[in-house]
Design goal:
The protein has ten helices and 13 strands. By secondary structure, it is of the alpha/beta class. The chain folds into two domains: 170 residues, 3-Layer(aba) Sandwich (Peroxisomal Thiolase, Chain A, domain 1); 143 residues, Peroxisomal Thiolase, Chain A, domain 1. Helix 3 packs across helix 4. Bound molecules: oxa(dethia)-CoA. The site of oxa(dethia)-CoA has 20 residues, from helix 2, helix 6, helix 7 and strand 12.
Length: 321
């Protein structure tokens, strides 16, 4: 087995300037600030400007992560972008980010696992680094979900926001830091519970997001527990050992239910859903960057990330910071 560990060297994030509050949404659909806050914990979300694309958000987050790591773009030989809202059907938006950053070596591709995209991307980047295929990876989650929302459907349009987050992972021989374990799952029987009703091969349109929210909520809680248990067991870590729980930011009630099950107090949970909304693959790296920059997550801390999204896909990863 490889003795290489994928160590987090830096984090970064980017949120578009425009903030859309629940009160703003009251003017568009039959909803209320009270309903959105009580059911989800969301009060506001950011929205990309006209002409501002997923690759722009991802590039800004990647630049911030490189600066935070004290590295140059030329140090990177893998750009892995988790997104369900690429600029175009192809090429991968990862290559646009690679070019924006001036990276001329290595390889770049997109990963499509919707809201679990970043957890999938961290796990896959970890495997690629361990296999020796790359030395330093920019792992990015970037989304412009505002572009695939049906702005007449109050059951979905109030939930999502735009944004991007990134981490730099570096292959390091030995040591105790880095990605300790991952657990990924998918079950395509659930694919009609959360999907986009368009695509190049079917409608030749981008389509709009559709979700059976109550059913996703019902399934999410149990499925998330499975991968958290799997990830902790693989690393030989107990729930009590954890320093930070950094979950996918879809709904405050799902986060609280998970934290309650494992006995994690509020002080150990990173929550950004209130001001970011659900930013799909960007939610976990945005939360990681928030807590790393404000000094909560420190070197040596044990950090658990998890997410569930369309497919269903879901997964978790444990990182020694
Ligand atoms: O990121 C990928 C994973 N996604 C998730 O994890 C999302 C999981 N699901 C959820 O977070 C929740 O199910 C929602 C936040 C989407 C909905 O919360 P809920 O407590 O499950 O509400 P509900 O869907 O059962 O709807 C309750 C009521 C309904 O009215 P009736 O049928 O009781 O009369 C809805 O029509 O709330 C109504 N409703 C709204 N009312 C005001 C639905 N959306 C809205 C709205 N404003 N925006």
């Amino acid at each position: 087995m490889s003795s290489i560990r994928s160590v987090v060297r830096g984090t970064g994030s980017y949120l578009p300037a425009r903030v859309v509050t629940n009160n703003d949404l009251e003017k568009i659909v039959a909803t209320s600030d009270e309903w959105i806050r009580q059911r989800t914990g969301i009060t506001a979300r950011h929205m990309a400007a006209e002409g501002e694309y997923t690759s722009d958000l991802g590039t800004a987050a990647a630049r911030a992560a490189l600066a935070n790591a004290g590295l140059d773009a030329s140090d990177i030989d893998l750009v892995l972008l988790a997104t369900a809202t690429p600029d175009q059907t192809f090429p991968a938006s990862a290559v646009t980010i690679q070019d924006n950053l001036g990276i001329r070596g290595g390889f770049a591709f997109d990963m499509q696992a919707v809201c679990s995209g970043f957890v999938y991307a961290v796990s896959n980047a970890d495997a690629l680094l361990k296999a020796g295929l790359a030395k330093r990876a920019l792992v990015i989650g970037a989304e412009t979900f505002s572009r695939i929302l049906d702005w007449e459907d109050r059951t979905t349009c109030v939930l999502f926001g735009d944004g991007a987050g990134a981490v730099v992972l570096e292959a390091v021989e030995g040591g105790d830091q880095g990605v300790l374990s991952c657990d990924l799952r998918a079950d395509g029987r659930f694919r009609d519970k959360l999907f986009v009703d368009g695509g190049p091969s079917t409608t030749q349109t981008a389509g709009h997001l559709r979700m059976e929210g109550r059913e996703v909520f019902r399934q999410a809680v149990g499925l998330i527990h499975d991968v958290i248990d799997g990830t902790l067991a693989k690393a030989g870590i107990t729930a009590d050992d954890l320093d930070w729980f950094v979950p996918h930011q879809a709904n405050r009630r799902i986060i609280d239910a998970t934290a309650r099950k494992y006995g994690w107090p509020e002080e150990k949970i990173v929550v950004t859903v209130e001001t970011h909304g659900n930013t799909s693959a960007a939610s976990v790296p945005l939360a990681l960057d928030t807590a790393a920059r404000d000094g909560r997550i420190k070197r040596g801390d044990l950090v658990l990330i998890e997410a569930l999204g369309g497919g269903f896909t879901w997964g978790a990863a444990l990182i020694r910071w």
